[in-house]
Amino acid sequence: MWETADGGCMGHGTDVCVIGGGPAGLAAAIAASQKGFRVTVADGARPPIDKPCGEGLMPDALATLRTLGVAVGAEDGCAFRGIRFVDGNNAVEAKFPDGPGLGIRRTVLHEKMVERAAALGINFLWNTPVTGICPEGVLARTELISAKWVIGADGIRSRVRRWSRLDAHTQNDCRIAYRQHYRLKPWSDYTEIHWAEKKQAYVTAVSREEICVTVVSQFPGGRIASTLLEFPALANNLKGADLSSVERGTLTSMHRLERVCRGSVALIGDASGSVDAITGEGLCLSFRQATALAEAMEAGDLGLYEEAHRKMAMRPTLMARLMLILDAHSDVRERVFRALAHGPQVFARLLAVHVGATSPMHFAATSALLGWRLLAA
User: Fold this and answer.
1) Please, is 200 exposed, middle or buried when counting C-beta atoms within 10 Å of its C-beta (0-12, 13-18, 19+)?
2) DSSP 3-state assignment of 255?
3) Is the link from the previous residue into 59 a cis peptide, with omega within 30 of 0?
4) Helices and strands (H, E) in the chain, number of each type
5) Measuring CA to CA, how many Å separate 256 from each of 18, 132, 316?
6) pTM, whole model, 2 decimals?
7) pLDDT digit string (tens) for 282-294?
8) 6, 16 contact by CB (below 8 A)
9) Which residue of 170, 244, 248, 343 has the smallest Cβ count within 10 Å?
10) In whole angstroms, what is the distance from residue 57 CA to residue 343 CA?
11) Cα dist from 146 to 87, 305, 364, whole Å
């Protein structure tokens, strides 16, 4: 036991202690509770917890949320039926093969996940910073929470990762993302990605009266107001709209850890490695990791999670690398967009790969088809 400042000891026990109460941590807590574990979640903040992000959930993310019993629907946000890429005068779009995605405010999603966790009897320690971990469990303020399993869900700058000596990783350059909301009726039922020189603007309707705009750039000064000048069509659509939130920024990066488990400690979400926000798959990946981690804890073998985690990251990492090539090379992007405009079925097949609706063989065939299109572009 840890000693308190007055020399006494205090604490309580749980099967699983999750450090971090964002969507990744809540997904891990819910999945573990569904397996019959007693779960405690500790976080230094209070809900609803917000974070700058594109606020679009792909169909595969919604499907995974349903397995966790988290009910979100069009009444909680705004459905979108596919993705549209816009680069100057070139545009290409495709529908999702298995139903729509959902634009939803991050705070609304967090509230829904907290409600589900509370209904399962998960114990919350909000406003409770975690100051360390030890073989017996977790130190939250001066209290020891004894736990069989400890899950680090504390984000890209994870202290749990450092405390458990799991911070050996490879990392590509970071990019900077800014997000802001506009009070405006959606002009499209697609999520739009507008491309410019080494930057993108993501447009997702989060209600029938509100638009979320996120700009991701390699340049530190790429705030939304100035960056919109490089997206004239988007700037024209937003002209005259009232702002409904303050601008917020964060970092996004690609990094992969050598390991995500050590002893009884496992990492999840951005704490366990991340894909660039260009994919829109960060939340879905963490939701799927939560299910795999719960199954590994039930089997008493975190090695199963390590293996599953590595496999789950392969597709989003590949798609992120491909899209970052388009970001870095405008000449390549122009040829690809021209090829996709002349063969929209190729973009539809790529989108199906992106949301996990097809097999690796389908991806290989689609890549070959795109190659032929590029030769003719």
Assistant:
1) buried
2) strand
3) no
4) 11, 22
5) 21, 23, 12
6) 0.90
7) 899 999 999 999 9
8) no
9) 170
10) 26
11) 53, 22, 48
The pLDDT value recorded for residue 362 is 52
Residue found under tokens 């009910």? 71
What's the CA gap between 105 and 52, in Å, rounded?
10
The number of angstroms, rounded, from the C-alpha of 25 to the middle of its chain's C-alpha atoms is 12
Q: Decide if 280 contacts 325 (C-beta within 8 A).
A: no
Q: What pLDDT, on a 0 to 100 scale, did the predictor assign at position 368? A: 43
Q: What share of the chain is helix, strand, coil (3-state, %, to 5)?
A: 40, 30, 30
63-82 pLDDT per residue, tens: 999 999 999 988 999 999 99
Q: Considering only CA atoms, which of 285, 280, 278, 284 is closest in space to residue 260?
A: 285
C-alpha 373: how far from its chain's center? 32
Question: Going by C-beta distance under 8 Å and a sequence separation of 6 or more, which residues neighbour residue 354?
Answer: 58, 279, 281, 315, 319
Helix (H, G, I), strand (E, B) or coil at 222: coil
Q: What are phi and psi of 225, to 5 degrees?
A: -55, -45
- pLDDT beyond 50 at 374: no
Buried b (16+ CB within 10 A) or exposed e, 128-137: bebeebeeeb
Phi and psi (nearest 5°) for 214? -125, 130
Chain mean pLDDT for the chain: 88
Could you tell me the two tokens for 140?
């939250």
Cα angle 293, 297, 299 (rounded to 5 degrees) comes to 115
Tell me 277's DSSP state: G
Q: How far apart are CA 204 and CA 6, in angstroms?
A: 53
Between the alpha carbon of residue 55 and those of residues 52, 88, 180, 207, the distances in Å are 8, 24, 11, 11
171: confidence class by pLDDT, cuts 50, 70, 90: low
- As a whole number of angstroms, the distance between CA 286 and CA 100 comes to 20
Rounded CA-CA distance 336/350 in Å is 12
Chain mean position to CA 246 = 21
